[in-house]
Amino acid sequence: GDSVTQMEGPVTLSEEAFLTINCTYTATGYPSLFWYVQYPGEGLQLLLKATKADDKGSNKGFEATYRKETTSFHLEKGSVQVSDSAVYFCALSDRRSQGNLIFGKGTKLSVKP
Amino acid sequence: KAGVTQTPRYLIKTRGQQVTLSCSPISGHRSVSWYQQTPGQGLQFLFEYFSETQRNKGNFPGRFSGRQFSNSRSEMNVSTLELGDSALYLCASSELQGRRNTEAFFGQGTRLTVV
Question: What's the pLDDT band for A59 if we cut at 50, 70, 90?
Answer without folding.
Answer: very high
